[in-house]
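A.,

Following up on our hallway conversation. Structure tokens first:
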């Protein structure tokens, strides 16, 4: 669905290599969060693997596709607080 509905970009990859990457990422997420439901882990892996590549205009389309395919699944947003605090501390330390 993504390859048909999103804009055609050379850097978008929805082939078997991308599927394998999502599955590997989902496996890592499931091992790190064994109590999370598998469908939620898979959706998070799909988003984590694809969203950074998408153009701004394609993000709402991708979210709509995911919502259509998994209407009842609630995805926890990743918590980047520690990461962001570390970046800010390092920037402050460097005077940037």
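Then the amino acids I'd put at each of the 96 positions:
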């Amino acid at each position: 669905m993504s390859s048909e509905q999103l804009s055609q970009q050379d850097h978008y990859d929805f082939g078997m290599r991308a599927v394998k990457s999502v599955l590997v990422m989902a496996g890592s997420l499931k091992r790190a969060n064994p109590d999370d439901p598998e469908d939620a882990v898979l959706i998070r892996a799909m988003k984590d693997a694809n969203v950074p590549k998408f153009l701004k205009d394609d993000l709402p389309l991708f979210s709509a596709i995911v919502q259509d395919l998994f209407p009842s699944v609630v995805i926890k947003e990743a918590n980047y607080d520690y990461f962001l605090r570390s970046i800010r501390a390092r920037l402050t330390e460097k005077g940037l």
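The chain has a mean pLDDT of 85. Curious whether your intuition agrees with the design.

B.
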